[in-house]
Amino acid sequence: MKKIHRYLGLVLSLIVLIISVTGVMLVWKREYLWVTVPEARELRAEDVELSNVVALIQKSYSADELLFVRFYAEGLGVHKVYLSDRRYAWHSQQGEKVEQWKENERFEDWLLDLHHRLLLGNAAGLNMVGFTGLLLLPMMVIGLLIWWPWRKSFRLNLVPATGRAVDIKKGHFETGVSIIAPVMMIVITGIILVYPTESRWLLRDGFSDPLPPKTTATESFNLPEKVSWKRAFDVAEALFPEGKLHWVSFARPGSSRFSIGVQEAGSWNRMGSSSVSFDDSGAATVKRQDEQSMAEQGLSFAYPLHAGKLPTLYRLFISATGLLLMWLCFLGLLSSLKRKR
Fold it and tell me: For 215-233, how does the pLDDT look when each residue is reduced to its tens digit (9 = 90+)?
């Protein structure tokens, strides 16, 4: 077990260090945007008509460029616009263009790509991160089993008393034992985000064939008048009076259908699982979120738990956990180096 723990740790340590550093930084992404995008610091205005915002954004691009708008991204005073060819833009809450960039040209996008895919794409990088998480779980359990016979000598000495190999190893194990629970939580939620389909099959469907979607009920109707952005948003607000209008998806080439997404009260789904779709003929289709099972709610809650989309005290907690995970990797590497000498 010691050999497995040592050599597996040496293999994974560099990836874990990268993920830990970038993860701690991404927890404070909202504050970084608040500093670097002046319009993001604006207080949310009460008189903003989202229909006018979308109409103004639409005038800034050609029809085949616009894909998606996320309102008040990161809870700030700007809207994020998703464009073709992996381009993005910030627009003020009134709809004026603030900045446009291509994938990874902004630091926070590059940082997320490094954290999530190691800058290697979905095929290689995403799976490397996912398998690192899967291997970390048994490695932490093995480390706990190795430490268990010495549990009565536990003193929470996160900093080694001396530079001797035995003290460094002791600091490594006591740091690891101290943070094993929150690190496991972060690793498990990260695996769920990397492998959402497999996680649903395992945790929601119970190893059986995927169940039919339970989270939406669909209804259709025809509007009595021509569809406009103002009319569409009025309908969405009337259908979901307690929901939060979260996004707009624009019509694809050859289609006139567009959608407005809603995050209903109490939902942890980061993009909302309810929506209203419209087309030029006046036909509307409503997808409503039904009562979710505990497993589905847990899967949706994985994202805010992992990404720190919760109150500041929790973000401080997982940031401290990430910093201690970096320290754990450093002590493990130093212990192995001392042992080799």
Answer: 455 677 787 777 889 989 9
